[in-house]
Amino acid sequence: MPDDGPGFFERVYELTKLIPYGRVTSYGAIARYLGSGRSARMVGYAMNNSHLYPGIPAHRVVNRKGMLSGKQHFGGRDIMAQLLTNEGIIVENDCIVDFDKYFWDPGRELKPE
DNA sequence: CGTCTGACGCCCA
DNA sequence: CTGGGCGCCAGAC
What we know:
Blueprint: H1 8-17, E1 25-26, H2 27-34, H3 40-50, E2 61-62, H4 79-86, E3 91-92, E4 95-96, H5 99-102, H6 106-109
Parallel strand pairs: 1-2
Antiparallel strand pairs: 3-4
Helix pairs in contact: 1-3, 2-3
The chain binds a DNA duplex through helix 2, helix 3 and strand 2.
């Protein structure tokens, strides 16, 4: 969008909101789609404020290993794991089983144009 | 303006 | 194979 500059965060939120139900993605994948590739940390940092935005399925975003690295920020309990399980995703030991199977690549599934 | 942090990722020992 | 450290980028203080 030719909008001035919504900010890196909003782009993360927009993309995160596009994650389909029952799918998950990684911080790095989002970062790469935004063009920063190595700023995966920023994605996680943005997620920190995601709680200020509605419709941000942050629980569908995990690290590249499929580990619920941010589950701690969901209230202190396994809320994140339960949310994923509720979507049909198997979570064991704070790790998504068959993560690759549920992986949703924004640059591939959400092809440009 | 300078400094630090941060829900990551990859390289190296 | 496992652990530790550095790098990246943008926002908050």
